[in-house]
Every structure is written in structure tokens, then in C-alpha cells.
Amino acid sequence: LILKSSNFFAIATNGRWKESEDSCVYLAESTPEIFNLYLNYLYTHILHLDLCVPSTSSNTTVVDECEALVKGFRLGDFVQDTSFTDMVTDSLL
User: Fold this and answer.
1) Which domains, and CATH codes, for the chain?
2) Comparing C-alpha atoms, which of 26, 41, 25 is closest to residue 73?
3) Are the beta carbons of 47 and 41 closer than 8 angstroms?
4) Phi, psi of 27 (to 5 degrees)
5) Smaller CB count within 10 Å for the chain: N or C?
6) Which residues contact 42 (CB under 8 A, 6 or more apart)?
């Protein structure tokens, strides 16, 4: 699923790159929570912001959600998944 959605992962795992040899892709600019947001999007085509912002609704602010969306956009841009970045952009607007 991720290889069909992300040009980055498709290329990184094709056998000619270090990531393919190591069976590990290091995403320095992302956090596990943001990557989880991305993975859940791949399966549901819904952005589940509750996965990456505080779970207590009284603590969740618009700023928290916007920060998560910006981080999600940066991840989507890095992994070259335009469907995900489009969804994030639509959510920001």
C-alpha cells in the first residue's frame, strides 16, 4: 500500500539504495505520531488528528491541530504522496 502511494518509498526500497539493503527507512523530520497519522490515512483516506494531538479535548487547540497538519504536510511532501498532501492542505484551509 505504501509503495503505491509514495514515490519515495517505492524508490527507496527497490534494491539499489541503502534503505533497501538495511530494510529500514529513516525519517529524521517526522515523529511516530505523524507517521501514524500518515499510515492511518493510507488505510482510511481520513485524517485522524486524534492520533497526533493531545487526546483530552480541553487541551487540544487549533494551534495543536495546525501544527500536526503542517508536520503531516512536510512528511507527505518528503515521501512524495500527493494524495496525502492534498488532503492535509484541504484540512488546513
Assistant:
1) 2-92 (3.30.710)
2) 41
3) yes
4) -115, 85
5) C
6) 1, 2, 5, 84
